[in-house]
Amino acid sequence: MDRVQGKRNVDFLDILLLARDENKQGMSDEDIQAEVDTFMFEGHDTTASAMSFILYSLACYPEYQKMCRDEVLQALDGKDTMEWEDLSKIPYTTMFIKESLRLYPPVPGMSRITTKTITFFDGRTLPAGSHIGTNVYSLHRNATVWEDPEVFDPLRFLPENVSKRPPHAFVPFSAGPRNCIGQNFAMNELKVSTALTLQRYHLIEDPTQTPQIVPRLVLRSLNGLHIKIKPVDP
Ligand code: HEM
Q1: What is the pLDDT of residues 17-51, one digit of tens each?
Q2: Where is heme bound in this sequence (predicted)?
């Protein structure tokens, strides 16, 4: 995900329009392929990583899992699908998902190459052509911002607690002009998948299998993420 700083200048609609009109000057086939690859990578592996760690976190914290399930069952009210308006009826589950994205950010780091000299507030400068890395995994465990950072606590995301933190304390979808354009869609995917899973299954930790978490392009576990599942109504 190394790339030069700059404003997003191509969106998915542009890609489709340009791909349709072969005579139009603009993107080459390689450019279009690169953009489609970006969508496939950014949209798939990230969501798979997020969902895997959410299910793992639910298994590790049965009391929070129960609170999420109670909320989901009430919101769905007997339906076996989730509708648009139901997405806003599960605030506790949404906070749980965010806490999982904090401790297990699917994109654990990002990098940029500067195109011009940056002058910081204290007068120090960074020349053009510098490679900059941001460690999101560490940022989300920064003890000056997050009290007891290793503790899993969904209530960190109550609005009154969020307002006490700097806006860039939590950046699973990055920030600025090149942040994730799929973040609302991704949050909705995560809410639906979590809710419908909780409606059907109990998730149980397997204490014999501790994940070995590694920051690759997306956050992964070298030995997989092992949980046990049991139907809610056997
Ligand atoms: C939990 C799921 C997701 C996470 C954590 C995530 C995270 C991110 C992050 C951190 C970036 C910035 C990367 C960088 O600065 O180097 C990004 C960019 C991007 N994401 Fe997502 N993403 C997710 C899901 C999705 C989905 C579902 C889509 C599309 C359907 C998507 C499309 C994109 C695209 C196209 C970019 C590049 C934007 C640009 O360069 O201007 N992402 N994502």
Answers
A1: 555 555 556 788 898 888 888 888 788 999 999 99
A2: 180
Give residue 40's pLDDT: 81
Domains of the chain from N-terminus onward: 12-108+147-231 (1.10.630.10)
- Only one residue has tokens 């950072």, namely 149
CB burial string 164-184: b at 16+ within 10 A, e below: eeeeebbbbbbeeebebbbee
Q: Which atom of ligand 1 is nearest to the CA of 189?
A: 27
Ranges of residues in the chain with a pLDDT under 50 are 1-10
**Other beta carbons within 10 Å of 212:** 10
For 11, other C-beta atoms within 10 Å of its C-beta total: 11
